């Protein structure tokens, strides 16, 4: 009985993982900006391009008062039609490599958004990743 239950649970998890679909988000649907977390709390717009390396990789450049900041962003959005909670969900991986530091700095976030119905309800996701020892953040607004 235990083996049968274990096979059912593992099968359901595997089917859930197999039915998830990763979205290749187009750069036109993303808005990046740098928000300083100290006075004068300046905000700077960024440009984003699809990186020639990797499927979910993006090159982000932000012109600030001081310099042009460059980041590599790994962004994966997966829609899961069925989760362990029985409803749909989004899984977002937002990883940032700060090329401007003497030794590259990496920060990452994995976010799960669980819907209260089985339909896709999210239209936009906004996230921020701390950079410069959290003195600033690389903000992302993404239209789904």
Mean pLDDT reading? 82
Low-confidence stretches are 1-18
Strand content: over 45%
> Domains counted in the coordinates: how many?
1
Summarize the structure.
The protein has 144 residues and is mainly β.
How would you describe what is shown here?
The protein is mostly beta strands and 144 residues long. It has one domain (20-143). The protein is built from 1 helix and 9 strands, in the order H-E-E-E-E-E-E-E-E-E. The chain has one helix at residues 2-19, and strands at 21-23, 30-36, 43-50, 57-63, 68-80, 89-98, 105-114, 124-131, 136-143. Strands 1, 2, 3, 4, 5, 6, 7, 8 and 9 form a 9-stranded antiparallel β-sheet that branches. It starts with a helix and ends with a strand. 16% of the residues are buried. Residues 1-18 have low confidence and may be disordered.
Task: Provide the fold topology.
Elements: H1 2-19, E1 21-23, E2 30-36, E3 43-50, E4 57-63, E5 68-80, E6 89-98, E7 105-114, E8 124-131, E9 136-143
Antiparallel strand pairs: 1-5, 2-3, 2-9, 3-4, 4-5, 5-6, 6-7, 8-9
Short key terms for the protein model shown above:
9-stranded antiparallel sheet, disordered N terminus, mainly beta, 9 strands
């Amino acid at each position: 009985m235990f083996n049968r239950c274990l096979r059912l649970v593992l099968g359901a998890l595997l089917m859930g993982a197999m039915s998830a679909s990763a979205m290749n988000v187009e750069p036109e649907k993303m808005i990046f900006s740098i928000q300083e977390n100290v006075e004068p709390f300046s905000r700077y717009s960024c440009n984003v391009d699809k990186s020639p390396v990797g499927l979910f990789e993006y090159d982000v450049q932000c012109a600030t008062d001081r310099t042009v900041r460059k980041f590599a962003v790994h962004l994966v959005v997966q829609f899961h039609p069925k989760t362990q909670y029985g409803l749909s969900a989004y899984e977002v991986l937002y990883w940032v490599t700060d090329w401007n530091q003497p030794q590259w700095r990496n920060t990452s976030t994995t976010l799960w958004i669980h819907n209260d119905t089985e339909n896709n309800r999210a239209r936009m996701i906004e996230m921020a990743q701390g950079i410069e020892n959290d003195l600033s953040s690389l903000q992302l607004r993404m239209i789904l």
